[in-house]
Write a structure and sequence with these properties.
By secondary structure, the protein is of the alpha/beta class. It contains eleven helices and six strands. The structure holds BIS(adenosine)-5'-pentaphosphate and magnesium ion.
Length: 225
């Protein structure tokens, strides 16, 4: 299984990405985690990227793409699968990582989009700030990260949709509910993906499922009750 996690800061890429990787026995390659690890270990690379992370700006493409190339090559030697979390963030990164994956014969099966509203994203990140004190979980930096996501990263979703590999899930629900829906969708896709030519793939939008199964009635009790 080869999955790209595409979603806003705080949407649950790390949380769900880790669970997916564990479930399918593939590496969870999270660019933010790899970069933070360099900062923590005070490597030369860590010193170069620290100011980008602290301010919520994007680290230069060359740095993250080299890192991902290495991780994909290692994944190829391993199970051949991956969960890539935090990349691509720009159309240029999407183009380069696709080219890399084609060369390694490891193109993504699924681009997973976790849909979460703006207020909930901020709530989650501010909650995490109190628990973990991540340097970019301050109000100003959160705002900057969300703006960059909206302006630079979100437009890439259309490209995955047109390739027929975008799976969209309503993720403003408890972690376990999101996980169950994601795993079900991925299990079904895993069974068919090798048998369907790329040109016949169609994107899947599950974001209405939570409403179909009662989420709206929980959020908005009937009037008069
Ligand atoms: P990165 O580490 O990727 O951060 P991010 O995209 O801002 O996303 P987060 O890690 O904050 O959120 P998440 O979606 O993983 O959610 P999580 O599961 O943690 O990138 C950090 C920085 O690195 C960037 O700003 C940039 O500087 C640099 N960088 C990284 N990749 C780059 C690239 N490709 N190019 C250039 N620069 C790059 O969940 C968030 C919180 O919510 C947690 O506390 C979690 O417990 C909680 N939570 C999760 N799910 C739920 C749920 N369903 N209900 C309630 N709470 C939940
Ligand atoms: Mg993360």
């Amino acid at each position: 299984m080869r999955v790209l996690m595409l979603a806003a800061p705080g949407a649950g890429k790390g949380t769900q990405g880790g669970l997916i990787a564990q479930h399918f026995g593939v590496p969870h390659i999270a660019t933010g985690d790899l970069l933070r690890d360099h900062v923590l270990r005070e490597t030369e690379l860590g010193r170069q990227v620290r100011r980008f992370l602290d301010s919520g700006e994007l680290v230069p493409d060359g740095i993250v793409l080299d890192m991902v190339r290495e991780a994909l090559q290692a994944a190829k030697q391993d199970s051949g699968g991956y969960v890539l979390d935090g990349l691509p963030r720009t159309m240029e990164q999407a183009r380069v990582v696709y080219q890399m994956a084609v060369e390694l014969d490891m193109t993504a099966d699924v681009a997973l989009y976790l849909q979460v509203g703006h207020d909930e994203l901020i709530r989650r990140l501010l909650t995490r700030a109190k628990q973990q004190g991540r340097s970019d979980d301050t109000e100003d930096v959160i705002r900057r990260r969300l703006t960059l996501y909206r302006e630079v990263t979100a437009p890439i979703l259309g490209w995955y949709e047109s390739r027929g590999i975008l799976v969209s899930v309503a993720a403003e629900r408890p972690v376990e509910e999101v996980t169950l829906e994601v795993m079900t969708a991925l299990e079904v896709l895993q069974a068919v993906v090798g048998h369907v030519p790329d040109s016949d793939r169609r994107s899947i939008d599950l974001t209405g499922l939570d409403v179909a199964f009662g989420a709206a009635s929980q959020q908005e009790p009937p009037r008069g009750t």
